[in-house]
Amino acid sequence: MKNEFELAFNxxxxxxxxxxxxxxxxxxxxxxxxxxxxxxxxxxxxxEADIDLETGKVVISxxxxxxESVQDERTEVTLEEALKINPEAQLGELIIVECTxxxxxxxxxQTARQVIQQRIREAERDxxxxxxxxQLGEILSGVVQAVNRTGAALGLDMxxxxxxxxxxxxxxxxxxxxxxxxxxxxxxxxxxxxxxxxLSRAHRNFLRRLLENEVPEIYHGMVEVRSISREPGQRxxxxxxxxxxxxxxxxxxxxxxxxxxxxxxxxxNDEKIDVIEWNADPVVYIAKALSPARVSGVYLNEHSxxxxxxxxxxxxxxxxxxxxxxxxxxxxxxxxxxxRIDIKSLPEAAADxxxxxxxxxxxxxxxxxxxxxxxxxxxILAKKAEGRPVTPEEYQTxxxxxxxxxxxxxxxxxxxxxxxxERQRIALADVPPVTFEMPLEDLGIPFRFANLLNGAxxxxxxxxxxxxxLDPNExxxxxxxxxRAMEAIDMAIANLVLPEVEAEAxxxxxxxxxxxxxxxxxxxxxxxxAGVEAGLEAALVAGEAAEQAIEVKETxxxxxxxxxxxxxxxxxxxxxxxxGEEVPAGVAAEAELVTAGEAAVEGEPAAGEVTFDELFSxxxxxxxxxxxxxxxxxxxxxxxxxxKKGKKFVEIEYDPDQDVTMVKKKRKRGGDRVEDWDV
Length: 679
Fold this sequence. Notes:
Radius of gyration: 47 Å
Number of strands: 18
Mean pLDDT: 77
Shape: flat
Largest sheet: 5 strands, mixed, barrel
Structural class: alpha+beta
């Protein structure tokens, strides 16, 4: 049978809905506080409490010092007593000794009670804070506990209390005590007195959550609520879109005979709800947002400064319906679509169009085109002003006239935008890309001017240079920027020194270098006729010239230095000479050099008397290509820079005994000249 302590403990657990370990720790802390209060112990002394939850027995242990003779029983214990607890105890050490008092007394019991209540209260607050923080944005149900001028207090789960302020209530609704109310959890604040829970019934997300609860298609993701605009208690507009084909989003929200939407209307105190289908086309979307009014035309101005503007033309009998009571329908449509909507009646729009054609120079071309229609439109407007009946055909004429003028204005705006983009593109081409990575402080203008420009949005040197090329007057309009500042900016831009960018070899040059490096391999196949030795040397010299040409091109030219020779241009004349073809007079010296080198070999004809194809056909068995000749060693960035300064020397020797041609290459690596032999 359970004792009284265990029954009381379980009752607290059930009532407070807190973890068992938490209540156990609170009881331990209460017993420790009761002991300190009972014996007047110091807070620096370590005290422990242990409670048996089945019997309710309490054991208090305190840390004491081992001494020979006890002066203060609260903090000292004799060595004999300490040895009973720990046989290895020694004088001067600290030991945990049981010291449960026989009777705590009334004051100590009251202290324990206060500690238990405080710990349980803190645990309740933490649990409430964690629970309701997870419920943010969800609908909660509570019972009205009190109603006053500032709002209503609702009792929620976990014995928490929520506040429904008067500004978050639907206008016109009244609550009584014990009424059950649903509201949106808007905010949870952590205060010293516990979590403060703010509820709302006027927020638009309250309507969103109600739709999710009442419409299964929204809850399961087949229909999506794209936008909501709401004026609590009066009217709301909801834009929905289907995420699956074959689903009617508006019909799903309304339900059969409006049963679904009517349940939401009753919850919102008879608030009117317009459900429209969302459309990616702003023209169609805006026209639907103004329902139930019928729209004749929607004309967008997406490039206006500030918010985007849409001009909506409606028939005269639909004007009041489109605007709504106190502009409510137009206001809700603007919030729903995020467009500024300017509503005009058809006669008003026609009169504005005639005024623009007659007074605005930008409409001069359209005025010439509409010269025959303007008198007819003026006559229709005059009949309308006099109260005479207007035929449907005349209304159609007004509609077409306004449509042509408004669409012409849209086309003109698009043309101006394209011209502005072209002007910016041209100006951007004159600004070096590296300047967009340079902070404005690197320009060298006074610090005061740099701060003013940074505040105006000009962060980099490129931003400032681009604006100076587009329109310097925009910078001059800034507060604190005058003629003196503009002179300093112009001078700083003129004297700007851009950081050097390392040039890289072009792909065409790299391909030429690779083709040239293969020349010695092809020529080595002709090693047997000794007369080809001179041709091999000429090819290697050509390759060296091509490599040097590329190296020179990578190096910036000095003043007056001639342009470097392209790699293909360096190898072409020598290749033509070796092939026996005619060359221009400009390369005659090179041709003579090659011919003389080949003729110097005994018993071999001149280069002009034999071609590459003939030489290959003479000795095909000597066609041995050594691929090691074309292997390029990996070079670091530092080696490439050194290579630009030094030259590479090549010597060719032919060994008739071994029937091989040896190419001797001398390279400078790390300050020492190294010789490489390729056979």
